[in-house]
């Protein structure tokens, strides 16, 4: 008889660190690269202690050049390794666009499948940490627009661990976005080797009145709004896509057909973004089930302000979700 799986309370940082350790122990081709990932343990301490266990051949600090970091990652992946590259802030991916969009995303197609790029780029998203316009953007939709790249958005420590393991094992390039405000949040995490299949959404709360499709840190915002609205007799069903490329539109539509109403909540910019893609897909696939237009809540279309009072106004909150749902249900 097998022993029961141990479940612990871990922070998001601890869950990601555990995933990296387990994958590096399982597969010698997994290496970690980035600014300050070795001796310092990464800017958010996700890679803390990896240098001591795996040594400098597998955990390497890099120069301050995002283009070089991503380029080395692409080359290492093409020659048989499984690099996990850390880019400190998602905003800095803009400095590596050629390596990601024109190289990593295209190699499999341009080589007729003879080459693969099993590369993971870990980075951040999200406003709210008072670090101004160049360190606070949520740019995940830019990369979801590009064929050949997978985009992962974990919303809990348990999902973060299982999704990172799946990303490392995947043979295509994956960009793994972590919400900066969630790094110290705790949640139950199983002590096992399970990975979550990329492209499979999860229902984080069941309800019958309105479907909330929320990504990354917005899942917590949606769950808070659900608790508030339940006091008014409005029950929200919260669906977390977990990955936006690939997108599990089937699971989302299944929920919307049950509730007949939908709000999409994402921390990226609203124009041409994640909320637009999901809303358009829902409108097409669940048109005859909808009793109201699909609503969207995202970041305000302005550079993120440094002022705390202004910054908080630019991203969805439980209160803005509650107001939107109240209007939707009349």
Any overview of this molecule?
The chain is an alpha/beta fold and 330 residues long. The chain has 2 domains: 10-190, Thiamin diphosphate (ThDP)-binding fold, Pyr/PP domains (Rossmann fold, 3-Layer(aba) Sandwich); 202-329, Rossmann fold, CATH 3.40.50. The chain is 35% helix and 21% strand. The protein contains 12 helices and 14 strands. It has helices at 12-26, 50-54, 66-78, 97-104, 107-110, 140-144, 157-169, 218-230, 249-259, 274-285, 308-313, 318-329, and strands at residues 7-11, 30-34, 59-61, 82-86, 120-125, 150-152, 174-179, 186-190, 202-205, 210-214, 236-240, 243-245, 262-269, 295-299. Strands 3-2-4-5-7-6-12 form a 7-stranded mixed β-sheet, sandwiched between helices. Helix 10 (274-285) links the parallel strand 13 (262-269) and strand 14 (295-299). Helix 3 packs parallel to helix 4 and helix 9 (249-259) crosses helix 10. The N and C termini lie far apart (54 Å).
Helix-strand pattern, N to C? Answer: EHEHEHEHHEHEHEEEEHEEHEHEHH
Sheet with the most strands: spatial strand order = 3-2-4-5-7-6-12
Tell me the CATH architecture of the largest domain: 3-Layer(aba) Sandwich
| DSSP summary: helix tally | 12
Low-pLDDT residue intervals, each spanning 5 or more residues: none
Describe the structure using short key phrases:
7-stranded mixed beta sheet, Rossmann fold, alpha/beta, 5-stranded mixed beta sheet, 35% helix, 14 strands, 2 domains, globular, 330 residues, 12 helices
Per-chain topology:
Elements: E1 7-11, H1 12-26, E2 30-34, H2 50-54, E3 59-61, H3 66-78, E4 82-86, H4 97-104, H5 107-110, E5 120-125, H6 140-144, E6 150-152, H7 157-169, E7 174-179, E8 186-190, E9 202-205, E10 210-214, H8 218-230, E11 236-240, E12 243-245, H9 249-259, E13 262-269, H10 274-285, E14 295-299, H11 308-313, H12 318-329
Parallel strand pairs: 2-3, 2-4, 4-5, 5-7, 6-7, 10-11, 10-13, 13-14
Antiparallel strand pairs: 1-8, 6-12, 9-11
Helix pairs in contact: 1-7, 3-4, 8-12, 9-10
């Amino acid at each position: 008889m097998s022993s029961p799986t141990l479940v612990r309370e871990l922070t998001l940082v601890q869950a990601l660190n555990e995933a990296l350790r387990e994958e590096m122990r399982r597969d010698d081709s997994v290496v970690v690269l980035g600014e300050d990932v070795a001796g310092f343990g990464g800017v958010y301490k996700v890679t803390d202690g990896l240098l001591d266990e795996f040594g400098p051949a597998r955990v390497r600090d890099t120069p301050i050049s995002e283009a070089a970091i991503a380029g080395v990652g692409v080359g290492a992946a093409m020659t048989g390794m499984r690099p996990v590259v850390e880019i400190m802030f998602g905003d800095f991916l803009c400095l590596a666009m050629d390596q990601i969009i024109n190289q990593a995303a295209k190699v499999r197609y341009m080589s007729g499948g003879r080459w693969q790029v099993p590369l993971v780029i870990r980075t951040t998203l999200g406003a709210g940490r008072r670090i101004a316009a160049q360190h606070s953007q949520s740019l995940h939709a830019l990369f979801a627009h590009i064929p050949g790249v997978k985009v992962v958005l974990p919303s809990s420590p348990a999902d973060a661990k299982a999704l990172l393991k799946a990303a490392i094992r995947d043979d295509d390039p994956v960009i793994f976005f972590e919400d900066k405000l969630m790094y110290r949040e705790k949640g139950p995490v199983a002590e096992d080797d399970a990975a979550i299949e990329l492209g499979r959404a999860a229902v984080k709360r069941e309800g019958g009145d309105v479907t909330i499709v929320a990504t990354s840190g917005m899942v917590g915002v949606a769950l808070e709004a659900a608790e508030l609205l339940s006091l008014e007799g409005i029950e929200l069903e919260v669906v977390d896509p977990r990955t936006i490329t690939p997108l599990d539109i089937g699971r989302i539509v299944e929920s919307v057909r049950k509730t007949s109403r939908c709000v999409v909540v994402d921390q990226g910019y609203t124009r041409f973004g994640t909320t637009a893609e999901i809303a358009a897909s829902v409108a097409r696939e669940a048109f005859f089930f909808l009793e109201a237009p699909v609503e969207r809540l995202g970041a305000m279309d302005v550079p993120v302000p440094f002022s705390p009072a202004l910054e908080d106004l630019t991203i969805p909150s439980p209160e803005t979700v509650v107001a939107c749902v109240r209007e939707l249900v009349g």
